[in-house]
Amino acid sequence: MISRVRWKVCVEITEEELRWLWCSYKGRDGSTAISVEKFETVLLPPGVAVRGKVKQPEVLHLIVKRYLEERRAEFRLPHQLQLRIGMPLQNQFIREYSLPWVKKGDRKGLVNYLAEEEIPIPKEELIFDYLIREQRSSPPRLNVTLAGIRKSDFFSLISCFQAEGLEIEQVSFSQSAWGNALKFNPQDNTLILRQVAGQMLVIYYRGSTPEMIRSLSAATYSYGEEEWDSELHRILLHLSLYDEQVVLQRILWGQGNETAKVGKRIGEYLRRVHGQEPIMQEVDEAFYAVFDKELLQAIPCPEPERLLTALGIALDQEKNTLNNFWRGERIKRKSYRVKSIAVGLLLLVNIAGLGMLVSSQYALNSMHNKATQLSEMKASVALAEEQQREQVEAWLRVKNKSTSIGQAMQELSSFNPVGIRLERMEIKGDTLLMQGVAAESLEVQKVFQYLDAGGWGSVVLSSYHVAEQIQVEHMPIQFTLKAVRHD
Predict the structure, then answer these.
(1) Per-residue confidence at 464, pLDDT binned at 50, 70, 90?
(2) Domain spans of the chain?
(3) Which of 66, 77, 226, 324 is 20 to 30 A off residue 277, Cα-Cα?
(4) Cα distance between residue 338 and residue 343, in whole Å
């Protein structure tokens, strides 16, 4: 009976293991009557995957190959299986924006500009994905979910599966699947605490979109009440970058005593200082409240938290899912196939016509000329498309009134305060991105003051955390600032 079903495979990669979920389905498009067949984990040696990046792709490929060989020997599986992948959000980017309504013809240019300005990944290394949803309001607005990943991280991961004949269907951030699987309310803000690879991650969701991940050092576990109040104040200050008036409706914590302690401390702080009453739950409790018991009986798992990502992406039936980096690759490949078929048909038509009119030698010469012309036409079309894209981007930059980058960089380079080390400065249009390390939080406030005095407005703290491994002596704080130049 198993051999007759059609398969869909979902896998999550973590630092410790690969988590495989095998599903069978009915219906021609594979979108109905999904049945979960099996859930398995495969341990990864230390160092294969670190902080969301595949460091040893050749080792990962070998592990995937051996695992699939065992499954193909056990079941009569098709040569090409559809695969959905969940990968960590660490060191990558995802965020939701509420933008003024624009007509459909202008949206692609708007998103391209937004990705270039907002995602802190170099353009030549960036793969970005987006989903636009129209918001029925007065006036109407657009909700844009924008996600970015480095090409090197993306292709080093998927190549390990493609080499074994797996057909990629979806590549999403694991945390996106969590928000979808646990059915977070679009109007709610949720905080999830997880213990991962020896560190605690604090993940902030606005609706079902994970917008922030922050790690807490092991030293925070032993904080007293006053130190905890200070740390929680910094966390909420960081959240205010995404939502000016942060109101948390839910706090969930995963496996481990420390996550429960921290989750409860955050809840107590919110009640005592801000008068908020968030729902407090373990992730497993929220999991069992959402999923059907019959479904869970088919895939017994002692730790439901380990199952959540794979199950979330398996049950995602949306045509336009929240986050899928393979969406853009699929469109590119489809466009290439259509163009190739069109060129092939045109060549056949020319061959047939020429064969009826001229001798075989003349036909061969004409075919060569036609093929050369078609190749030149394809190159001209590609060049015109590229020029059009560059014109749209240039128009957007002019529209946003770019200032003198050289003068601004010269002014900022002269800023060299004690207790701060600036490691990166980048200006795109009117927007400044500044990264550095600091001895203490008061030094970061001095940077705010300096930028404000120098004509930079809307200064916001994009990231802020205390590093476990200090790169610069006596400077444990790592931060990123963004600001907008005011003429």
Answers:
(1) confident
(2) 335-399, 405-485
(3) 226
(4) 9
